[in-house]
Specification:
Elements lengths: L7 H48 L4 H11 L2 H13 L3 H9 L3 H17 L3 E8 L7 E6 L11 E4 L13 E8 L2 E11 L5 E10 L1 H32 L5 H11 L32 H58 L10 H17 L5 E7 L2 H8 L1 H18 L5 E3 L4 E6 L1 H5 L1 H17 L11 E7 L6 H23 L4
Antiparallel strand pairs: 1-2, 1-6, 2-3, 4-5, 5-6, 7-9, 7-10, 8-9
Length: 505
């Protein structure tokens, strides 16, 4: 029996078919994986930038205090009970009792607003990451979709974080977990000493992108299959035709292909001539025509790929410009808020703390009294004869008198906060070093006022004088009782001044 021959034509068809299949699949896979790598890199960078940007908007000191509170055994027991009962009210009450609720609610609202304005971000949260050996992490603040008792909840560490050194920068990662396909990034939040308090977790939704990639890969496969079938059919038609001369022309023209000469187009009309994409008119449809078509298809595909890449770079640059603009606007808004906040707590004339700032301070002192850690004194200062200065020399002179008197108090109590609580009344809260030297400092302030008052070489509105009263906090006191004693002491000194010098100078 005669063995069946494999003809040269058959070998050529098989060879061309295999070549076309390998090349088309290679280009398809190369395009696919390059596109995937670029998109993944872009998404990772965007996700981390979003987390890092939001990290600049939070208050590290508040988060540090919140972390200490929720890590306590008392809070964890309360949280477990609230979770079993599905009752958020207990958590809210506890945070209010600790004086943390208002800042907590504000932080949570800002997080949700940020999340709502970033369409591509699926999850945004504040998390306390354990060290590299930890298998659990604690969620500190989450959005409105999660109940309050999730605050302080320990959950299994994401598989991508197991064994990761969380004290260093955590590289963004794309993974498929119980939450679906996500790109996750974690940006650290540090306190004033540079210690990591917690991390901002940001998850970019990858479900749609992964689905599109599957479709894209299928299309590439179908295109590759189509090219392969096309090449096989074409070889059946043109194999017996003469190809030497066309092959030589193709060889010469192919050498002219130079992708570096490619210039990206502003529209869909790509100029293939500049990079030297092969463009011949062949009279015969033979094997050389197949090779020509394959070479041209490869060159065109490569130029199309370069054009797509250039468009992607432009889109990326536009996004970065938008992101920078948003960051600049956020920075400007933050600076405006800081200016408004500073103005709300500062006396416009003297630039010391105003009554609002004083109220905020005494509220803080009251909390220290409740904790049993209070140690302070109050100095009450009342200007002598300010009405006289205003009546006889005008309010501009009165303002000079107020500011000059304020400067004497500031020099005396340079380490303590000073507040203007009335037209001619100032209060100093003595703490720390000024508290320990309170008697000497009060005496110095009184001497400075006496010297200024006795200086007859300057106009009356520059002869600054005030009565100073001091009271020290003792166990059982309230801030109000200490203030009243300081006010009484000041009043007694004012009476002595009037008895000695009269109501006016």
């Amino acid at each position: 029996m005669k063995k069946k021959r494999i003809t040269i034509g058959m070998k050529m068809r098989i060879f061309v078919t295999l070549i076309v299949f390998v090349i088309s699949v290679s280009i398809a896979l190369l395009s696919y994986f390059i596109n995937v790598e670029q998109n993944d890199s872009y998404i990772k960078r965007m996700t981390y930038n979003s987390a890092e940007n939001y990290a600049t908007l939070v208050d590290p000191e508040f988060l540090s205090e919140l972390r200490r509170t929720v890590e306590s055994e008392e809070f964890q027991a309360l949280r477990n009970d609230a979770s079993m009962k599905d009752d958020e009210s207990a958590i809210e009450k506890y945070l209010k009792d600790k004086g943390l609720w208002d800042k907590y609610a504000e932080t949570r609202k800002e997080m949700c607003n940020y999340l709502d304005n970033m369409d591509d971000i699926k999850y945004l949260y504040i998390i306390v990451l354990g060290d590299s050996s930890a298998y659990y992490d604690m969620y500190l603040v989450d959005d409105y979709d999660n109940p309050l008792y999730e605050t302080g909840n320990y959950q299994d560490r994401e598989s991508g974080l197991i064994g990761v050194d969380t004290s260093k920068k955590i590289e963004p990662a794309i993974n498929n977990s119980k939450w679906g396909w996500l790109c996750s990034a974690y940006a650290p939040v540090c306190d004033s000493q540079g210690n990591i308090v917690c991390h901002i977790g940001c998850d970019f939704d990858m479900e749609t992108i992964v689905g599109e990639r599957t479709t894209q890969l299928l299309i590439f496969g179908l295109v590759s299959l189509g090219l392969t079938v096309f090449a096989y059919i074409l070889t059946l038609i043109i194999f017996n035709l003469f190809f030497t001369k066309p092959f030589k022309r193709i060889t010469e023209e192919s050498k002219k292909f130079d992708p570096e000469k490619f210039e990206p187009s502003d529209d869909d009309n790509i100029d293939y001539n500049k990079p030297g994409v092969i463009n011949l008119y062949l009279k015969k449809n033979d094997e050389i025509t197949d090779i020509y078509e394959i070479i041209r298809s490869i060159q065109v595909s490569f130029i199309d790929f370069l054009d797509d890449k250039a468009r992607l770079e432009k889109d990326k640059q536009r996004y970065l410009d938008i992101l920078r603009q948003v960051e600049t606007e956020n920075k400007d808004k933050k600076e405006q808020l800081e200016k408004v906040s500073d103005k709300a707590y500062r006396d416009e004339l003297t630039q010391v703390g105003n009554k609002n700032a004083y109220i905020r301070k005494i509220n803080s002192l009251a909390k220290n009294i409740e904790k049993g850690s209070a140690k302070f004194a109050i100095a009450m200062i009342d200007l002598n004869n300010l009405k006289y200065i205003n009546d006889y020399y005008g309010h501009e002179s009165g303002d000079i008198y107020i500011k000059g008197s304020c400067q004497i108090v500031t020099r005396a109590f340079r380490n303590s906060p000073l507040y203007r609580v009335g037209g001619d009344e100032f209060v100093v809260i003595l703490m720390g070093e000024d508290y320990r030297n309170r008697d000497a400092l009060v005496s110095q302030a009184r001497e400075d006022f006496i010297k200024s008052y006795q200086n007859t070489s300057v106009p009356p509105h520059k002869r600054f004088c005030a009565a100073v009263g001091l009271a020290v906090y003792a166990e059982g006191d309230t801030v109000e009782s200490v203030f009243k004693r300081a006010d009484q002491a000041m009043y007694a000194e004012k009476m002595l001044f009037k008895m000695k010098n009269g109501s006016y100078r």
